[in-house]
């Protein structure tokens, strides 16, 4: 179990680093585009690049955010429960979230394969859509693994 959790942390950290680089790219691209617009030379396809990269940032940052519980977590009601019931509620919510992310990943991969077979591309830069969609599918699968790690922590009494 400990090895599984460490592996999930390592993969989540790698994907989070990709999200950080992507965020830096968006900031740099947008800043450069604004500066070049002053001189009447905007960067072609900035909107598309920001949209694609934004999907990467969002998807790849979610597993690490969930792993560190850095998202909004309203637990004032759950804290009133005895510890055993809290664990049951936490496991139930994790199982529900796993189902949600599994369905999302399945649909992302399904849609990504559809876009791959139809050769759908963005209008300006002609970039294929499927890599971003598939990347979000991978992020959803990783989020399922993070939630499974949470369940292991809850069952093992290591969940804070």
Topology overview:
Layout (H helix, E strand, L loop, with lengths): L1 H37 L7 H22 L15 H36 L11 H26 L5
What can you see in these coordinates?
The protein has about 160 residues and is mostly helical. The chain has helices at about 1-40, 45-65, 85-120, 130-155. The mean pLDDT is about 95. It starts with a helix and ends in a 5-residue tail after the last helix. The chain is built from 4 helices and no strands. The longest helix has about 35 residues, at about 1-40.
Percent of residues in helices:
over 70%
Distance between the termini: 17 Å
Low-confidence regions: none
The H/E string reads: HHHH
**Class from secondary-structure proportions:** mainly alpha
Q: Let me know the largest β-sheet.
A: none
- Alpha carbon gyration radius: 19 Å
Features:
160 residues; mainly alpha; 4 helices; elongated
